[in-house]
Amino acid sequence: MSLFIRGGTVVNHDHSRRADVLIQGESILAVGTTIEPPLSADIIDADGCYVMPGGIDPHTHLELPFMGTVSADDFEWGTKAGLTGGTTMVVDFCIPDPGQSMLAAYQDWRRKSEKAAADYGFHMAVTSWSKQVFDEMETVVKTYGINTFKHFMAYKGALMVDDDELYNSFARCAQLGAMPLVHAENGDVVARMQEAMLARGIDGPEGHAFSRPPEVEGEATSRAIMIADMTGAPLYVVHTSCRQSHEAIARARAAGQRVHGEPLIQHLLLDAGEYRSDDWDHAAACVMSPPFRDKSHQDSLWAGLQSGSLQVVATDHCSFTRAQKRLGRGDFRKIPNGTGGLEDRMPLLWTAGVGTGRLTREEFVAVTSANIARILNVFPRKGAVMAGSDADLVVWDPAASKTIQASRQVSRIEYNVFEGFSCTGGPAVTVSRGRIAWRDGELRAEAGDGRYVERPAFPPVHVANSTWKAITAPRAVARDMVTP
Ligand code: DUC
Ligand code: ZN
Ligand code: ZN
Ligand code: ZN
């Protein structure tokens, strides 16, 4: 089966040119101006459109058991929502239950993701430290093809890890050629501030935002960066939402550290004013961690994307219904944290980025796809419109217009935090591994069409001392290195 995309402008992260694209089976066979399509090829007319790599969302939580409930969009509906908006791959967080092994958690996630309609990979969460975790990390990298480990510096009493655990796990990542990820918020300080808010009688969604100020994120980001430096590991800071965190990342990069920052489309476009709403349901819908910030932080995030000190735009898609959000009436600490965005990230970023001149088209491709593929080590299989790459791409109509309305969305919840936003520019056709997954408003992908994508390890930073003893006794290792 072949597809021929004729007459468009191919946009990659590094250049654009007028070219046709021939797809054979699941991959791109050729990109050029002199390709003769086979007689049997389905022709897609891309005149006036851009042909770009499909979006990759490196940060989703589909069917995640979290805060006493389970996120509403599962792998089927989350990936279908993504395809509707031009996203052809998600990377979801595999989070072991307390006491559960990583290996069992991985099997759970593979089971849940069988119904994915688009390709997907996983990150693995490290929520405690032990010899068992040390050993399992090797299997996760070498057998499961997962080269990223997530650490929560917040959610005290649940997922949070302390500095000792961070140090050990980051050092282990460095040995394995894996990269640590951090949710950077100081969970101890957040817990104290939450108590202080409730003691003052502030129990609504605004209390959520007040108890997680930017300083809490800036401190944790700086701490994680320095711990990563001491272990020789690279670092990826998820949902970078504020100036303090961005500046810490930019400083570390200027000093030569491999640190990556990931703003969310939500933090780029929505601000803390949402929590001042008189409408409890609306304010609760916007509860996520980190919370939306004052507008001044948005300028910092856009500047980071423009200058390259921030590399990626994600969603942290973790949707909850109104009824689920209402579990937190009377105590904001119980409002399930999370917002959606998978369906809207690409059109919104195009509109607010390319449409305003803040981003070039190539930069748009970089931050929604190519940079992510490179950072997560699946480039150029993903993230490129190039001969040999997977045929995950989007035929993007810069004139398409859409007003975001929850009543018309694919996501399985009854509201949308971007309700009423108008987008100019959107997918005319989304192609997922060579198949038309979405075209002119019609979703054609089906549950089970997606495949699991393995992501190989990076070359290890250093391979010496890769034993449990060396990791758990860093001072002894340092001492051994001093020769008399
Ligand atoms: N933040 C959220 O808002 N939801 C899921 C997990 C997270 O860290
Ligand atoms: Zn997080
Ligand atoms: Zn609003
Ligand atoms: Zn998350």
UniProtKB/TrEMBL annotation:
Group of enzyme by EC: hydrolase
Family: Belongs to the metallo-dependent hydrolases superfamily. Hydantoinase/dihydropyrimidinase family.
Protein EC: 3.5.2.2
Keywords for the protein's UniProt record, in alphabetical order: Hydrolase, Metal-binding
Protein name, UniProt field: Dihydropyrimidinase
GO MF terms held by the record: dihydropyrimidinase activity
Domain Amidohydrolase-related positions: 50-436
Cofactor(s) the protein requires to work: Zn(2+)
Organism ancestry: Bacteria, Pseudomonadati, Pseudomonadota, Alphaproteobacteria, Hyphomicrobiales
Gene3D superfamilies (alphabetical): Metal-dependent hydrolases, Urease, subunit C, domain 1
Keyword field contains Metal-binding: yes
Keyword Methyltransferase: no
Top-level division of the source organism's lineage: Bacteria
